[in-house]
Amino acid sequence: MANRLIADRDRFAARHPEQRILINGREWGYVSVGDSGPALLLIPGTLGRGDIFWQQIESLEGRTRILAVTYPQSGGITEWASDLAELCGRIGLDRLTVLGSSLGGYLAQYFAAAYPHITERLIAANTLNSVAGIAARPPYSSDLDNAPIEELRVGFGRGLGAWRDAHPDQAELVDLLMAEVGGRISEPELRARLNALKHGPELPPLNLPREGIVTIESADDPLIPPPMREAVRARLKPTFAYRFEWGGHFPYVARPDLYVSLLEEQLGLPVTQQSWGEGEMRAR
């Protein structure tokens, strides 16, 4: 049976092929859509290219200026934040909302702290507040530079397989992510993403108005446990803290309509997608 999510993503990728750009010796991939409206920078996690946000991009197309990025094969959090600031300057995004998920959420927090004059709003999604101790936990405890790449990929596959067993209704999402980790994300890119957190800096103080700080989490996120979610909120003190009752680590893929709704709300756009109730998602 054909995988609907992969087919939809591939259709989007054919319509909006990833462009490549060299910044400070690192080659980034990016998708740029729209020429008017509020600006939105989308930063994926370890298991996604920029087009993993395809459902949000398609829903917001024509109403926003969207830049969705794919990590290069080298560098880390500090270098990547600098590269993204330069990329935004090159394409004329001088004030923007930056949304990052997981690894991207950590990078987004660093970016917002380092470049507050560019950042109008920070949306830190399904992410962590510190890299302290992460080097002792799999897969970061592996020799990320020299371990066989198949060993790293098998580790991801094991975790994804367990999620599929527990949530058979999300089998298509798991297949999509397995395709990413299985080769759509190249070996150097995957190693760089893992090393970025393993050797990442602690986050600098954030100097944004509180109304410009937003968090997103999922109650059933298997990778970000409740204490870590609480620590993210305690550090950022967001005006809005959205919580998906279900959606796992990838609510933007699993719950795309609700995800678009919160983006519309934060970007000041009319809400055209599915609305949420107390049992679905909470904002406080």
Automatic annotation (TrEMBL):
Q: Which Gene3D superfamilies does this entry report, sorted A to Z?
A: alpha/beta hydrolase
Indicate whether Transcription regulation appears among the record's keywords: no
Q: Name one GO cellular component term.
A: cytoplasm
What's in the keyword line of the UniProt record?
Answer: Cytoplasm
Domain AB hydrolase-1: start-end pairs:
40-260
- Superkingdom classification of source: Bacteria
* Entry's localization field: Cytoplasm
Q: Does the keyword Metal-binding apply?
A: no
Record protein name field: Maspardin
Which species is the source of this protein? Microvirga lupini
